[in-house]
Amino acid sequence: MSNKREIAELVLAIVFIAGCHTVKLATMNLPAFDTEAHRGGRGLMPENTIPAMLNGLSLGVTTLEMDAVITKDGQVILSHEPFFNHEITTKPDGSFIEEKEEKKYNVYTMTYAETRQFDVGARPHPRFPQQQKIKVSKPLLSEVIDSAEAFAASKHLVLPFYNIETKTQPLTDNIYHPAPEAFVSLLMKVIMEKKISDRVIIQSFDPRTLQIIHSKFPNIKTALLIEDFDKRSLDDQLKQLGFTPTIYSPAYKLVNETLLQACHQKRMKVIAWTVNDKNEIIRLRQLGADGIITDYPNLF
Fold first, then answer.
1. By C-alpha distance, which of 72, 70, 290 is closest to 201?
2. Cβ-contact 252, 272 below 8 angstroms
3. 193 Cβ partners below 8 Å, 6+ apart?
4. In whole angstroms, how large is the CA radius of gyration of the chain?
5. What gap in Å lies between CA 227 and CA 18, rounded to an integer?
6. Residues 6+ apart with CB under 8 A from 265
7. Are 35 and 63 a contacting pair, CB within 8 Å?
8. What is the pLDDT along the chain (300 residues), one digit of tens a residue?
9. What is the rounded distance in angstroms from the CA atom of residue 183 to the CA atom of residue 74?
10. Alpha-carbon distance 34 to 253, whole Å?
11. pTM for the full model?
């Protein structure tokens, strides 16, 4: 009898351990070399739009990089700025937004339905002449995920990772966006509903949102974005953050062998932004970078 009990206990232990192991395996590893389409690949298609994301996938990128903002009615939509940028926006009346007035068109003061009246793809982009012109509005994050997943499945592609930047900063809390806790809550609600948490990276220049993600959603991958003018040491940057993120993501000109070695010693991947020259992409890859973010995913 005791032998049977011991066998039963052993079986239960094995099942428990296997279950724990399965939970750990549910967090997918990043690609060996991560090719990321910046804002979907804005050198080729209107930035942060569904057509851009699908084009990036068709070119074989492993990760779709994008920016998230929040509307007045709490919807998570894609936009690099929390307002309608003058370089890309056509008003509902067909006129262009001017630079001097762009910040008045604050997404956080508009409902999602109101934002759909603005076009962000038909205006010729002054800095990206190759960009195809398409009449398109800022999409819901949920729509982007649905479209990307369906497209990848239909083309028999590996399902993509999503690198989502939180567009927050302390000076504009509750003006252009919710405070970090509310922002993260709305963002993670979409991610959890779409069941893609194992393929999501949350990136930010604002350490506050990353700290909340790390505390409340420890299995979510995080990326600390670093500007090229940030002269602090790596240790000081990580000290301010308060933990070691999955990814250290600096402006590409900051990347050298010393930085790569220091990051890899801390078990951080290094994904450089925004690299729009093929020779530079090759150089960084040969140097040991773990990924590249580019406006031109056709360069890969």
1. 290
2. yes
3. 142
4. 21
5. 42
6. none
7. yes
8. 445 455 444 444 443 334 443 333 346 899 999 999 999 999 999 999 999 999 999 999 999 999 999 999 999 999 999 999 999 999 999 999 999 999 999 999 999 999 999 999 999 999 999 999 999 999 999 999 999 999 999 999 999 999 999 999 999 999 999 999 999 999 999 999 999 999 999 999 999 999 999 999 999 999 999 999 999 999 999 999 999 999 999 999 999 999 999 999 999 999 999 999 999 999 999 999 999 999 999 999
9. 9
10. 18
11. 0.91
